[in-house]
Recover the amino acids of this structure.
């Protein structure tokens, strides 16, 4: 099965601290990976995708095929980053998107 | 432009009752999805539809049926609700990757909170 693993249920940091939310995937060639975010009282929305190699709201994520990882990073966390973060991958040869169990990020002032 | 609309937002059922969750999108998307969200379990795919008239099982399809009668609408039916189906249900849609890489970005509805007593 093509899985996505997010080992941390909760990550708590202080404002200004670096953040790394971990995501590992089961190997299957060239995966298509995403990070989605759910802010309080808002809909789930795309944060970024590996294919775009972009930085959104200061977040970046690099695909590491050797470690089968797609960790989400931000050098200086802000209080407004507090949210639920989901890593997801597209399953091979379909449009199905499989999500990890999510990591709740809490940023304290 | 409403995006993805789900109804109802909240529902309480008794064990054994049936109900249908409705979902509609106005973005002319090809693919539609139903997920459930449970604490500690994340988002799990129930069913998926790549186009009108086609459906495919996801990770947790047991106890559910779906219907994709047209391009806009994708409904989820619980024939005989069980307490284990207490969850928040999300509908989502995407253009579909047949339109090119990167067209698989999901747009989500607001969610439907279902409680089965």
């Amino acid at each position: 099965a093509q899985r996505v693993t997010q080992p941390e249920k909760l990550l708590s940091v202080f404002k200004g601290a670096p953040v790394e939310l971990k995501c590992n995937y089961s190997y299957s060639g060239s995966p298509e990976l995403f990070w989605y975010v759910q802010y309080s009282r808002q809909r789930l929305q795309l944060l970024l995708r590996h294919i775009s190699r972009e930085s959104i709201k200061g977040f970046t994520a690099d695909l590491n095929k050797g470690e089968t990882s797609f960790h989400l990073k931000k050098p200086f966390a802000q209080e407004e980053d507090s949210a639920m973060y989901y890593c997801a991958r597209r399953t091979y040869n379909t449009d199905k998107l499989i999500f990890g169990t999510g990591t709740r990020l809490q940023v304290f002032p | 432009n409403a995006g993805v609309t789900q109804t109802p937002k909240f529902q309480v059922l008794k064990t054994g009752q049936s109900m249908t969750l409705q979902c509609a999108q106005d973005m002319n998307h090809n693919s539609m999805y139903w997920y459930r969200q449970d604490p500690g379990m994340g988002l799990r795919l129930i069913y998926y539809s790549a186009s009108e008239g086609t459906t495919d099982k996801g990770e947790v399809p047991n106890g559910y049926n779906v219907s994709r009668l047209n391009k806009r609408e994708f409904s989820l039916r619980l024939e005989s609700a069980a307490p284990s189906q207490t969850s928040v249900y999300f509908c989502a849609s995407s253009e579909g990757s047949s339109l090119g890489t990167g067209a698989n970005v999901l747009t989500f509805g607001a969610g439907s909170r279902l409680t089965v007593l």
Summary: The interface with chain B takes residues 6, 9, 32, 34, 36, 43-46, 49, 51-52, 86, 88, 90, 94-102 of chain A (CB under 8 Å). The first strand of chain A starts at residue 4 and ends at 5.
